């Protein structure tokens, strides 16, 4: 796990294949978690894709609808591709599945692996993937899995004295 001091801002980037479903869901859900806990000012949170195919597109309508039901507005969010500068800048790069990890390796070769984690690795389901609802059409399960991973991530930061 990347180390930051308690007073430093924690920079988190969520990554999935297209940046229209899982990673923007994670971005906005984690923003809500930290806002609800009163620690939003301690974080910089964003999301990106490993692919280029959805660049410029907004949040996928079923993901957007799920977030809207939770009172979360995704206005202005458009897909973008992760860059090498992102890998250097963010303290934590949290991916959704093994394909995302493989794609990062293809894109960047050697990178700071201690910064990169799968979302569920912070939970009791270490090593598990967050299924892509683009293929499963099961946005509720993706939401539940994300909340499990994001909540465990926040708890890990607390337990390590980073918040």
TrEMBL record:
<feature type="active site">
    <location>
        <position position="22"/>
    </location>
</feature>
<dbReference type="InterPro" id="IPR036196">
    <property type="entry name" value="Ptyr_pPase_sf"/>
</dbReference>
<keyword id="KW-0904">Protein phosphatase</keyword>
<feature type="active site" description="Proton donor">
    <location>
        <position position="132"/>
    </location>
</feature>
<dbReference type="GO" id="GO:0004725">
    <property type="term" value="F:protein tyrosine phosphatase activity"/>
</dbReference>
<dbReference type="InterPro" id="IPR023485">
    <property type="entry name" value="Ptyr_pPase"/>
</dbReference>
<protein>
    <recommendedName>
        <fullName>protein-tyrosine-phosphatase</fullName>
        <ecNumber>3.1.3.48</ecNumber>
    </recommendedName>
</protein>
<feature type="active site" description="Nucleophile">
    <location>
        <position position="16"/>
    </location>
</feature>
<dbReference type="InterPro" id="IPR017867">
    <property type="entry name" value="Tyr_phospatase_low_mol_wt"/>
</dbReference>
<comment type="similarity">
    <text>Belongs to the low molecular weight phosphotyrosine protein phosphatase family.</text>
</comment>
<dbReference type="InterPro" id="IPR050438">
    <property type="entry name" value="LMW_PTPase"/>
</dbReference>
<dbReference type="Pfam" id="PF01451">
    <property type="entry name" value="LMWPc"/>
</dbReference>
<keyword id="KW-0378">Hydrolase</keyword>
<feature type="domain" description="Phosphotyrosine protein phosphatase I">
    <location>
        <begin position="10"/>
        <end position="156"/>
    </location>
</feature>
């Amino acid at each position: 796990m990347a180390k930051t001091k308690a007073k430093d801002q924690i920079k988190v980037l969520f990554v999935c294949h297209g940046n229209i479903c899982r990673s923007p869901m994670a971005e906005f859900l984690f923003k809500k978690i930290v806002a609800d806990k009163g620690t939003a000012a301690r974080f910089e949170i964003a999301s990106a894709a490993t692919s280029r195919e959805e660049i410029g597109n907004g949040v996928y309508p079923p993901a957007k609808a799920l977030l809207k039901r939770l009172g979360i507005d995704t206005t202005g969010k458009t897909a973008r591709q992760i860059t090498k500068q992102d890998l250097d800048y963010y303290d934590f790069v949290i991916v959704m599945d093994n394909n995302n990890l493989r794609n990062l390796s293809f894109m960047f070769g050697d990178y700071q692996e201690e910064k990169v984690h799968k979302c569920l690795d912070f939970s009791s389901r270490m090593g598990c993937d967050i299924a892509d609802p683009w293929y499963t059409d099961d946005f509720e399960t993706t939401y539940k899995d994300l909340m499990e991973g994001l909540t465990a991530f926040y708890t890990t930061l607390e337990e390590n004295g980073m918040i």
